[in-house]
Amino acid sequence: VQLQASGGGLVQAGGSLRLSCVASGGTFSTYKMGWFRQAPGKEREFVAAIRWTGSSTYYAESVKGRFTISRDNVKIVVYLQMNSLKPEDTAVYYCAADRGSGWYRIRADEYDYWGQGTLVTVSS
Q1: Residue 6: what pLDDT?
Q2: Diameter over CA atoms, the chain
Q3: Could you give the C-alpha distances from 119 to 17, 38, 57, 89, 100, in angstroms and in order?
Q4: Closest CA to 50 of 28, 26, 74, 18
Q5: For residues 124 and 13, is the Cβ–Cβ distance under 8 A?
Q6: Where are the alpha helices (DSSP H) in 14-53?
Q7: What is the 3-state secondary structure (H, E, C) of 43-97?
Q8: For a Cys staple, 19 with which of 3, 80, 112, 123, CB 3.0–4.6 Å?
Q9: Quick one: pLDDT at residue 23?
């Protein structure tokens, strides 16, 4: 399984970015896909998650209403649309895949596969 994240960059506070995560090398229909982020000196934290089927999503409280996770089942890509960005959103963003069943997981150590990360910097 390979996950390739992209789309990071430098943006002013209040701006928007869209991250992409291309998945390959596996059968993803039963997986859950998540976005995490890690700021300098901080632990990796959950941002959002989505399944490849159905319409459910799950968000961290800190991004709810500003970020939207979505997917393209044909291209096998997961997106994270980030609006109203704040300086505290600055971090390396990672996409991850969870093979497990059940509800969404928010601990990084519960995810099985990881992309390489893409840096998002929000200036004030």
Answers
A1: 98
A2: 41
A3: 11, 9, 23, 10, 27
A4: 28
A5: yes
A6: none
A7: CCEEEEEEECCCCCEEECCCCCCCEEEEEECCCCEEEEEECCCCHHHCEEEEEEE
A8: 80
A9: 96
Is there a contact between 97 and 23 (Cβ–Cβ < 8 Å)?
A: yes
Per the CB < 8 A criterion, the answer to whether 52 and 31 are in contact is yes
| Angstrom distance (rounded) from CA 24 to CA 4 | 9
pLDDT in tens, 35-61: 999 999 999 999 999 999 888 999 999
Two tokens at 57? 């999503």
Q: How far is Cα 88 from Cα 31, in angstroms, rounded to an integer?
A: 29
The one-digit pLDDT tens for each residue of the chain (124 residues) are 999 999 999 999 999 999 999 999 988 888 999 999 999 999 999 999 999 988 899 999 999 999 999 999 999 999 999 999 999 999 999 999 999 888 999 999 999 999 999 999 999 9
- CA-wise closest residue to 33 among 65, 73, 64, 89: 73
- Among all chains, which residue has been given the structure tokens 């609006």? 83
